Amino acid sequence: MPHHDLIVIGAGPGGYVAAIRAAQLGKNVACVEREPLLGGTCLRVGCIPSKALLESSHLYEQATHGWADRGIGLSKVQLDLAAMLKHKQQVVNTLGGGIDGLFKKHKITRYLGHASFDGPGRVIVKGSKDEQELTADKVLIATGSSVASLPGIDIDEDRIVSSTGALSFNEVPKHLIVIGAGYIGLEMGTVWRRLGAQVTVLEYLDRILPGMDAQVAKEAQKIFTKQGLEFRLGCRVAGVKVTRKGCEVQIDGQDSVQGDRVLVSVGRRPNTTGLNLESIEVKATDRGFITVDEHFETSQSGVFAIGDVIGGAMLAHKAEEEGIACVEQLYTGYGHVNYDAIPGVCYTEPEIATVGKSEEALKEEGRAYRKGQFPFMANGRAQASGHMDGFVKILADAQTDRVLGVHIIGAHAGELIAECASAMEFGASSEDIARCCHAHPTLAETVKEAALAVDGRAIHF
Ligand code: NAI
């Protein structure tokens, strides 16, 4: 029976990164994954394919509207959806193959099949043809999450789709109804709107992007509405009926909405079914998330868990940080995740990026803060490149000036936030950011100016 120092269950960004780090630390590591392509939801049907489609649909939209004001004329722009989807798949396959290569380089044994526990330190891998039993000193559960639905809605990945189906429509929907104005709803709604669909977003709350800074979410709604997304807030979706004509989305206390496709993007739930956790002592919360201590160890000694399956922000990079910290704590005695400095990015146009506390969270804590804000409109590079929407907002402690949160809506916000996350990781003050030289002309100067604005001394606004 094969024995390993560590078995990682799941090869998503949390699991495969943890496996590589453990191998770097000299351990004999195995990784069990049921999908032939490594990389998990993020790579197969999440972050990566959606970014490929966001990028391609953005180019298409820009080309369709032309750049006459910049002296570039285009005629006869055509959409070849099949080619666009093929490109997306090629990106996915290339990156998946890359992880295979990394596993080989680090001599990680890969098992293809569904893993379940058979008592502490024992894992059964059920492949398509056979079953294999493995043993290990330690086991790391990194099984991620799956799409959640609503009662009364059966996702068939045809008419009623999750993000997976919405990445592969073989024709542009006429009217796509999106349930949920979170990350997935806005990103995928944006893709299909750009490609020509009418898109209606139904959201239960009275705002979009719950959890994000409210001022940023409000600005986002304004910009997306101008782009053509239709929002209906305060809509509690009660069910979806598939009819001969398409789909009818029923809303509590309101008229139903008709469309030809429906995207259900109301969150995700942890993947624990089929792991036979009953055979070990792993505890879970009411919502099914595995409970772990500060070392990511479950209530069963020697069994660890990281990523979406333990809850918190369901983000690939949060899972990666946890995977590395867990393995380093195990094999070097030190590892750490700073949950206050984990950025979140919504890859719409403009992008929305955030790190640290929102204004609402600070108010709720009763923490005194100062705020510096700077609009993209007042930045030279933004003007030159035609990216004038949005702003950077920096929130700093009123007494110490320590940066507590940064919220950006604007071009390349997802890249700009990296500087802010690093600053927060180093415990920087807004003065620290303001005193760093930023190259001119760059969009990054908006961050410096927002930091200056905390103290009322932005130069260009
Ligand atoms: P989400 O939690 O971001 O948003 C779900 C939305 O659905 C919420 O606004 C909620 O109020 C709404 N909702 C819930 N029930 C409803 C109902 N009955 N009727 C109408 N609206 C309802 O979830 P989403 O967008 O499905 O994403 C899942 C996870 O994947 C998130 O945790 C997100 O962090 C992650 N993700 C991250 C991305 C990124 O980092 N760029 C991209 C895509 C997903």
Keywords:
single chain; 461 residues; alpha/beta; FAD/NAD(P)-binding domain; Enolase-like, domain 1; 3 domains; 7-stranded mixed sheet; 5-stranded parallel sheet; 13 helices; 22 strands; 33% helix; 24% strand; globular; binds 1,4-dihydronicotinamide adenine dinucleotide
Mean pLDDT: 97
Helix content: 25-40%
Secondary-structure content class: alpha/beta
- Say how many strands there are: 22
By DSSP (H or I, 4+ residues per run), the number of helices equals 13
Low-confidence stretches: none
Rg, Cα atoms, Å: 23 Å
Shape: globular
Could you tell me how far the N terminus lies from the C terminus, measured between alpha carbons in angstroms?
Answer: 68 Å
CATH names the topology of the largest domain as: FAD/NAD(P)-binding domain
Q: What's the architecture of the largest domain, going by CATH?
A: 3-Layer(bba) Sandwich
The CATH H-level homologous superfamily of the largest domain:
FAD/NAD(P)-binding domain
Sheet of most strands: 7 strands, mixed
Q: How many domains, as an integer?
A: 3
